[in-house]
Amino acid sequence: MMGPPGAGKGTQAAVISAMLGVPHISTGDIFRANVSAGTPLGVEAKRYMDAGEYVPDGVTNAMVRDRITHDDCRPGFLLDGYPRTVEQVGELNAMLASASQKLDAVLELTVDLDEVVSRLVKRSSEQGRSDDTEDVIRRRLEVYFEQTAPLIEMYESQGLLVQVDGLGAIDDVTGRVTAALNIEA
After folding, report:
1. Residue 84 to residues 79, 87, 90, 146: CA-CA distances in angstroms?
2. Domain boundaries of the chain, sorted by first residue
């Protein structure tokens, strides 16, 4: 699942993974859990997250590689927040090939950027997330478009990209996602 920060990827991924009966693998959640626990990975990740930068590929790739080897991922999984760079796509392709798995679809939630900033500022105040100050939000959006947007073109050329409007009520977006992916609710 792709889209800029605040597009609703986590919300939709949780709903869709439950419908499909597969794990929702969110790199953001894994990073935040490590930050909260004060692990070495968390300390390193926090430095990048607080600056609105991506956590280095080596750390992220190792974390995802480990997670998709768990038994609950055998029937499939939904990735949220990964891959984010062209290099990570190559690494994911290698991981999937070694596990005899493949991507079924890449869903992009499209949103208005002013709405995204509004959502993230609100979420920051409600959840006290240090990685969601307005300056950091704007930097994260810049980084997204610099590094992640090229993946959209790549997945589109492979026939894997499915784009869905991510604005509106959660249930309305879920309806558009399930229709686009041919999932029975």
Report:
1. 11, 8, 11, 10
2. 9-179
Active site residues: 9, 84, 123, 129, 140
State pTM to two decimals.
0.82
CATH of 9-179, one of 3.40.50.300, 3.40.50.150, 3.20.20.100, 3.40.50.720: 3.40.50.300
Residue-level pLDDT, tens digit, the chain, 185 residues: 999 888 999 899 999 999 999 999 998 777 887 789 898 878 888 888 888 787 888 878 887 888 888 899 989 999 998 998 889 999 999 999 998 899 999 999 999 888 888 888 888 888 877 667 888 888 888 888 888 889 999 999 999 999 999 999 999 999 999 999 999 86
> Residue 1 burial (CB < 10 Å; 0-12/13-18/19+)?
buried
Let me know: does 90 contact 35? Beta carbons within 8 Å.
no
